[in-house]
Amino acid sequence: MAYWAHKPTYVGPVEQHRTRPPQSRPRRGPAALPPQAQGGRGDERDAAALPAESATVYRAGGAGRPVPPLVRALRRFPNPRLTGLGSGLFCLVAMVVLGFLDRVLLGGAVAVYGVLFLLVSGLAAGWVRKADLVTAPVSVPIAFALGALFIADGGEGFTGTMAGLMTTLATGAGWLYGGTLVAGVIVTVRKVRLMARKAAARRATQPGPRDETRKAPRPRRA
User: pLDDT at position 161, please?
Assistant: First the structure.
């Protein structure tokens, strides 16, 4: 008890914590919100600007190459691809049906039959595939002759029918040549365009003279 009573106590300097005055921090404004959180103002501006830009581009592109109304009307038609046999069958069936309807409804009018033949010839030449372009001008006259059996005015029997067919072909020779010419012109144009595309693709794939010099191996030094 005496030891604890007479134990000296040490009193040292008391550390005092320095208190810094509060520094005034700059106030930050509200954080910028993304365009999605701003009520879509940015999207609305972009959406409003896009139609104007697209319209300007469309006008600039369309002003250089105006599309004729005939081409627009032709683009609306179906565009199947028929083989050579399919194109021939199409011409044959179409002209037989049209010749029968011409005989029943109009009494075998050669002019109406000829106009319809021009239309069928153009469709057959436009729908045949690229590999069988030559078959269209060949199958068109055959279909005209078979369809003309219904509008021919001949006697009874095989001989009379053949005589009437020859007469109809003679009187409708202009329509026959015209339909064949239409098919030939369409096929020729398609063939020329096909050859031009192949030549352009070949030039695009072939390396130029600079590429050949770059790829050429350099001679080794002795």
Answer: 83
Average pLDDT along the chain: 75
pLDDT digits (tens, 9 = 90+) for 81-130: 888 899 999 999 999 999 999 999 988 899 999 999 999 999 999 899 88
The alpha-carbon radius of gyration of the chain (Å, integer) is: 44
**The two three-digit tokens of residue 160, written as one number:** 């009379």
d(CA 92, CA 82): 14
The two tokens of residue 196 are: 């031009």
Nearest to 165 by CA among 108, 105, 97: 108
Q: How far is the C-alpha of 100 from the C-alpha of 119, rounded, in Å?
A: 17
- The full length of the chain comes to 222
**Residue among 164, 171, 112, 121 at smallest CA distance from 142:** 121
What CA–CA distance (Å, rounded) separates 122 from 95? 13
Summarize pLDDT for 52-85 with one digit per residue, the tens: 444 444 444 444 567 777 667 766 766 778 888 9
Residue at 75: amino acid letter: R
Side-chain half-sphere of 105: how many Cα atoms within 13 Å? 9
| Pairwise CA distance, residues 145 & 35, whole Å | 72
128 three-state secondary structure: strand
| Cα distances (angstroms) measured from residue 214 to each of 202, 203, 204 | 20, 18, 18
